[in-house]
Amino acid sequence: DAKTTQPTSMDCAEGRAANLPCNHSTISGNEYVYWYRQIHSQGPQYIIHGLKNNETNEMASLIITEDRKSSTLILPHATLRDTAVYYCIVANTGNQFYFGTGTSLTVIP
Amino acid sequence: GAGVSQSPSNKVTEKGKDVELRCDPISGHTALYWYRQSLGQGLEFLIYFQGNSAPDKSGLPSDRFSAERTGGSVSTLTIQRTQQEDSAVYLCASSLMGRAGARGSPLHFGNGTRLTVT
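ok -> structure tokens follow
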């Protein structure tokens, strides 16, 4: 069952920051928040994950609220190649990686 | 190899035939997972391996589906007597530690095998 809620779709102008929200109000203390994206005809690509603290890597930043009930994935300077479906997942074990339907992000030139 | 490798990338088979799908995980990854994705849908969990054993087979849709893993590395997913509803992309993923997620070990996916049953 889905433990996360994401908007179905979003648009973002090229070069601007894309902020993708995710609600996970039933997250438990030992569950991590993971973000993946899937570009057509490819397998899901790992982006970032976190437990409590905000995280940043070369692809994105992850902001997790203090109560851990929601998070935001930030792509700082969106490019056309960032157009994809973005999945927010909360999981403790790999077989609980429920991908749901995600957010379809379209980066507009 | 740099990532998870799956073969074949595409497979077309006739209804009733058996098929084998192969997954080569990232070297050193102890956990391996199979998912499938039907057109326009999310990923459906099938089975999880820790080493060569499969502690969770709960996602296999019927007894026509089986999987094995040998040497803690390569895995094969076998579908017997294929049906048209088996048509989907079959995705394999691996992670560094067992129970990926328990310590924050993300899954890394291959690009899948697109199975078409005619």
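The mean pLDDT of chain B is 90.
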